[in-house]
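Late entry, evening session. Most of the bench is empty. Finally got around to the prediction I had been postponing all week. Sequence below, unchanged from the version circulated by S.P.
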Amino acid sequence: MKRQGKIRQFDTKINAIARLADSAIIFLTFLSIINLLAVEWIPLYLPVVLVSVVLFNFFAESQDAYRSWRGMGVRSEIRAVLFSWLMTVFVLFVADSLLFKTGLYYAPTVRAWLVIVPIQLIAWHAAVRVTLSYIRSKGHNTRQVAIFGATPLGNRLRESFQNMDWSGLKFVGYYDDRAHISGDRRFDGEGVDILGGIEQLIRDCKSGAVDTVYITISMSAEKRIKTITERLADSTASVYFVPDLFTFNLLNSRWVDYQGVTAISIYETPFAGLDSFLKRIEDIILSIFILTLIAPVMLIIAIIIKLTSAGPVLFRQTRYGIDGDKIKVWKFRSMTTQDNGEHIQQAKKGDARITPFGAFIRKTSLDELPQFFNVLKGTMSIVGPRPHAVAHNEEYREKIQGYMLRHKVKPGITGLAQIKGFRGETDTLDKMEGRVHYDLKYIQTWTIGLDLKIIFLTIFKGFLNKNAY
């Protein structure tokens, strides 16, 4: 018999209800303020409220605010909700200031609404958490979960269950029928009791001692997994298979559904679809704003370079951009030479090629200011992995595993590696590995909030650095 099935996202209906509740709070809060302050309703109010609902839902979805709450901490949920509303308010203010110019958002009624809504949303989400946690603390709607497979992955899953006491998932214990597994199996020095093998697990499932089973054995044991799942079909327990995807160096992993066939990405850019559009809008708005502020500084730097050393003011160097395509990166010239070939020597302390003024602008990162034009052109982003010379890429891609994955996004003027101290000369392999580590971590954890945090910290940590020569 041919077996068919599809994998669907869990709790989609609950997520839809959560979105509807948040939308209702935004709308009803506005109506309540209008009634309490006895303010006359004007036609412009309706599109304002409706647009805010759409924007909030958009940003909340991008922050995964509606994923299953069992697997999401309360702080993460509140942070996602607050950030989504702040982004909504920001877009509304910018759109009104630049396009519509109604001045509506300065009215006391609307301003009160903008402040009260996030309080209401956070209170609602927190109340749901507290209520469900209380219900589960009384023994209602709880699940007795077991893990089949005394493996490091099983240990990680157990720790997750134990760190989510609000979820109602009560860990029963491990089951494993492999001959070499004993009762003193250890993970990181902690003793682990094995309650039994598959036969004992089936008995416990039938007796009601176990409601849900998570299988955490290696994906290579396909036949064994099939046998276990077939045996568990003789019970009414829910069964989950936990693929050990962490054996791979996941880069912004996500799952996609092709008419019921599920695929999981191993290496993927975070900037796909609407996220790509958001990132581009962020780059355009911020680069125009920053260029407006720094234009006088750039003019002064250009004049000093021209007066203090022979050669052009600007220097274009070939670098790798997104997907490994070659791009031309603009910099203020800081050396007497313009190396751009197959063999490029990194600048070192006391490097004779660096001009006196060049040393200053390199130390303060002012030599990189022209790269905001690269951002406007679309070949770079404000935040992302720093672009390396082509010669350095060819050298390190052979020495550092996953090095080229940093090119899954546009290179940036600043990045997570830079605020973590990995800026300037990378004279050892460890330093470059540290830079690549944070570059990939940025790709794995990207949000607009992370970008804004990096830009803010760059002002204090990224410009001045003792390692920059």
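Two things to note before I forget:
DSSP finds 14 helices and twelve strands in the chain.
The CA atoms of residues 29 and 98 lie 27 Å apart.
Will write this up properly tomorrow.
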